[in-house]
Amino acid sequence: MKKIIFKMILIFALFALNSYYLSVNAAQTTNWDSTAALNRVNTIGQKLLSANNISQKIEFKVSNEDTVNAYADINKEIHVYRGLLEYVETDDELAGVIGHEMGHIVNGHCAKQGILGAGISAIFSGIFKNQTAQAVSSQLAQNKISRNDEFEADITGVDIMTKAGYNPLGMVSLLSKISSNYVDFFQTHPSGDKRILNAYNYIEYNYPSKIALGYNTASYKNALSIIEPEVQKRQNSAKAMEQFKNEQEKLLVKKQKRIQKMQKTNTVWDGYLMTLQYLGN
């Protein structure tokens, strides 16, 4: 009898606990102000577009999902999830998010991925007869392309947000907060350490005054544990310093090309958008 009563109490407790969590989640969803969220994203997004004289028509959207995520698509839409909006601490970090996705659009990454993905799959299908080999080979090639795009989108985002008056170290703080450090050979995104160093090095070379000011978030301070040893190695080696300068000078050349591209209505890849849409029908 005691066992039966105990089981009934346990069932009731579990039911009550489950009801509580459901009500909390429902309240979180119900209480989320999508209008305020969209206004915040739009305000920062429009400031970035205006300050950088980006003529492309980019639309901003928010989604009531708790995933820490944002993405840009081939229709020049930037989607930001509630989970990410609740995760960022400062407007600088959110400008880093939007600037990064804007970087994918103005550099033509979204349209390019669609075209190259289809092309790579076709190429590897002709080389390899085994379906598994085809899939793995195609994915590895696309991953490499995507990783390069992520690096470029990060530093494009740094330029975009800095031009609009945001602190570019917000990008480093953001990357430190949301990036995972993993073996990146089989991933579409570079490891967290590599992205942090890529963004920081670019800021140090192009916006040194921002480095001197620092940034007061815990995630930025955590990033310094990755950054400072690498900076120290560079400062102690003339060869490493020369390599650093050469790499940054190459990025400056690419930067000028990006600026010219951003000031045009269409990117080189936009002409393929109709092809992508046609293939999707």
Largest sheet at a glance? 3 strands, mixed
Using DSSP, what is the number of strands?
A: 3
Uncertain runs:
2-30, 132-145, 181-186, 265-281
Q: What is the helix fraction of residues, given as a range?
A: over 70%
How far apart, in Å, are the first and last alpha carbons? 65 Å
Please give the order of strands in the largest beta sheet.
1-3-2
What structural category characterises the helix and strand content? mainly alpha
Residue-averaged pLDDT, rounded?
76
List keywords for this structure.
single chain, about 280 residues, mainly alpha, 3-stranded mixed sheet, 12 helices, globular, disordered N terminus, disordered C terminus
Describe what you observe in this structure:
With 281 residues, this protein is mainly alpha-helical. It has one domain (36-269). Helices cover 72% and strands 5% of the residues. The protein contains 12 helices and 3 strands, in the order ααβββαααααααααα. It has helices at residues 2-31, 34-51, 82-85, 91-106, 109-127, 131-163, 169-178, 192-206, 208-213, 218-235, 238-262, 273-280; strands spanning 59-63, 70-72, 77-81. Strands 1-3-2 form a 3-stranded mixed sheet. Strand 2 and strand 3 (77-81) form a beta hairpin. Helix 7 (169-178) runs antiparallel to helix 8. The radius of gyration is 23 Å and the shape is globular.
